[in-house]
Write a structure and sequence with these properties.
There is one protein chain. The chain has about 130 residues and is α+β, with helices and mostly antiparallel strands. It has one domain: Sandwich (Immunoglobulin-like). About 15% of the residues lie in helices and about 40% in strands. The protein contains two helices and nine strands. The protein has helices spanning about 5-20, 30-35, and strands at about 40-45, 50-55, 65-70, 75-80, 85-90, 95-100, 105, 110-115, 120-125. Strands 2, 3, 5, 6 and 7 form a five-stranded antiparallel beta sheet that branches. A hairpin with a 6-residue loop joins strand 2 and strand 3 (about 65-70). The longest helix is centred in the first third of the chain and has 18 residues, at about 5-20.
């Protein structure tokens, strides 16, 4: 088989594979988890160390990473959760970590977490 025919055959196979994959039309509703409101948390990192922020749901030991906040900056992170109690773990890169107390959250809540070198304060905005 010559080179142009091989390339054409490969292109046809690639199109067939793409056509057989899962499809979603533009007017389909998003999945249920995407439609739920999110909980947002504004993290004010007043520490010099960059920090990774995790959420831990009550009754679970696994933590879910929300994102990173550079030292002396603030970022707004978000996550989806059913109404429940959660706590946050702030892992300072190259240093220790802080863990908040549990707080009851519901979709749509807006939280603020202020982190200093040694302490933290978590509150619901408003």
């Amino acid at each position: 088989m010559n080179e142009p025919v091989k390339l054409c055959a490969v292109g046809v196979v690639a199109l067939m594979i793409a056509a057989c994959g899962p499809q979603q039309t533009a007017d389909e509703a998003p999945a249920d988890t995407e439609a739920r409101p999110q909980v947002t948390i504004e993290v004010q990192n007043q520490n010099f160390y960059d920090a990774r922020v995790y959420v831990v749901e009550a009754g679970r030991t696994a933590r879910r990473r929300l994102g990173a906040v550079p030292g002396n900056e603030r970022r707004t992170l978000s996550f989806r959760v059913e109404p429940m109690r959660v706590r946050f773990v702030v892992d300072f890169i190259g240093s220790g970590e802080l863990t908040t107390e549990f707080i009851q959250v519901s979709p749509g809540d807006e939280l603020v977490l202020s982190v200093t070198a040694r302490t933290h304060q978590l509150r619901i905005r408003g």
